Every structure is written in C-alpha cells, then in structure tokens.
Amino acid sequence: MTPGQFNQPKLRVSGATKVYSTRSGDLLAIDRCSLDVMDGEIISIVGPSGCGKTTLLWSMSGLHGLSSGEVLLDGAPITGPNPEIGMVFQDANLLPWRNLDANIRFPFEIKGTRPDRIWIDELLNRVGLEGFGGRFPRELSGGMQQRAALVRALSYKPSVLLMDEPFGALDAFTREEMNRLVEEIWLDTRTTIVLITHSIDEAIFMADRVLVLSARPGRVASVHEVPFARPRSLEIMSTKEVFDLTNTIKAEIVGERQSRYRQGGAAGAVGAQQATG
Ligand code: ADP
Ligand code: MG
C-alpha cells in the first residue's frame, strides 16, 4: 500500500500542547503538534530523548489530557482510555504473579467483558506463543514477553495500536523479528499503528511516514514518506533511498538540518506543512 491510498484520518491530532506542572514550574512538553494518522497507516515518531514523544502518544491514547488542542478518533474527541486503542510499552508490564493466559485475560476482567478466545488463540499462534499460556512472565524471554504484550494489546481488536519504544530493550535480531511480526499482523488486520522508536532503521522499515519531533518542546519538525509496498524485505534497508533518508533524519535529530534551513535551504518544511495542514 502506498500513502496515496489512504483517504480517511483515523486519528487527528490538532494543536496538541501539553504543559506539566512541576515543582520547579511549568514545563512545556509538546507545543502545537498536529498530524493526521490515516486509517490503516503506520506512522513512526522519532526525536531526541525527552522531546515529548511519550507525552504525544499518551495524549493520543487518552491516558492524559492536553493543555490545549485536541485528538479526534474517527472524528470524535478522545477524553479518556478507549477500547478502540491498544497500547504496547517498552516494558511488557505483565503481572508477575499471573501466567500468560491470565495476563491476557486481565483487561477483560477489569472491564467485565468476555475475551474472544478464538481470536486470542489465533494471535498467540501468530506470534509463536501457542502452548505458553501456562507460563509465568519470569519463564519467558524479553522477546516473548513483548509478544505477549502485543497479543494483550490486540486481544480486544483495537482499530489503533500505539506503541512506545516497544522493542527498545530487545537485541537487534529479536527486534527485526518483532518488526516483521507487526508487519504480518498489519497485513492481516490493517490496524492503524503509531510507533515511537529511537531506531531510525526501525522507524523507516515499519512506517508509511516517519515524523520527526524537534527537541523539547516537541514540535513536528518534518514528515518523510516511505513509499515501499508491504511486505517489505530487509533489502530495502540497503537501498540508496533509505540510506539518504536515514542520514536526513539523523541530521534533523542532531539539529544540523535546522541550522542549514535557517541559512536558506529548503529542508524539512514541506513535510511539516503536510502534517499540520
Ligand atoms: P520522550 O518520550 O520523547 O523521551 P517525554 O514525553 O517522556 O519525552 O517527556 C517530555 C518532557 O516532559 C521531559 O522533559 C520530561 O521530563 C517531561 N515529563 C514527562 N512526563 C512528565 C510528568 N508526568 N510530569 C512532569 N514532567 C514530565
Ligand atoms: Mg518516551
């Protein structure tokens, strides 16, 4: 699928601004961030540490409110946690005293709803965890725990999956496996995905568009299209196109690009307009 094929915004973030009140005063974490995430699109968000990526993602999920601006899901404002939105964090956050099955059941118990066992078994199968339902988190590797967290997030069939550096703690090989797994799941479900990552390679491999946030306060610095069809092969990562894009994004994150822009170059501005317009 190419970005041109998306026609409906699934999530619309407009003017998202978040100020945290801290003991040492107000802290502007994100400032007027706007972007549309189209239905079925995968967007990666990268940016310097502390620039407000998690803050932006939490706003999209309804886990916390904005100081100003709004987030719309299918045109309706998000005001709190929503079953249409699944989340995966860097830590799998599995409850250590519950086995895998009981961990996956947990959100359903809280909501008092019945899990779709067939769908969950299908997911467990898909991520290679069939037969592991009786295992406790300590008996699973980091990669397996993250796969379980992914199953838990997808178990109630969200239409949007938000992931905050979900594979950041995994080794490079396991991370690549997880990327392919998410791609496979996307091919089946066409779930809209927002992925925060500190790996530019991962950001590019996964996304239809890579959004770069500026240093805090996080603003949308640029947006880059990644026009490769899925399933993608790892070979795209060694093309000149990806090599150049990787370097562009790296330069933006370390700020070189911005200073060149101030001197009169055209870097970055086109994508940013796309995201905010
Ligand atoms: P990132 O995910 O890009 O590393 P965060 O969104 O976690 O950035 O944080 C952005 C800024 O907001 C940081 O300076 C961080 O210290 C601050 N921050 C994050 N959460 C809170 C909070 N609950 N209270 C106060 N400050 C916070
Ligand atoms: Mg973060």
Brief rundown of the structure:
By secondary structure, this protein is of the alpha/beta class. The protein has helices at residues 53-61, 100-111, 117-126, 142-154, 172-189, 200-206, 240-254, 256-262, 269-276; strands at residues 9-22, 25-38, 42-46, 68-73, 76-77, 85-88, 160-164, 192-196, 209-213, 220-225.
Report on this model:
The protein is of the alpha/beta class and 277 residues long. It has a domain at 9-79 and 158-276: P-loop containing nucleotide triphosphate hydrolases (Rossmann fold, 3-Layer(aba) Sandwich). The chain has nine helices and ten strands. It has helices at 53-61, 100-111, 117-126, 142-154, 172-189, 200-206, 240-254, 256-262, 269-276, and strands spanning 9-22, 25-38, 42-46, 68-73, 76-77, 85-88, 160-164, 192-196, 209-213, 220-225. A hairpin with a 2-residue loop joins strand 1 (9-22) and strand 2. Helix 2 (100-111) runs parallel beside helix 4. The longest helix is centred in the middle third of the chain and has 18 residues, at 172-189. Residues 265-277 have low confidence and may be disordered. The site of magnesium ion (MG) has 3 residues, from helix 1.
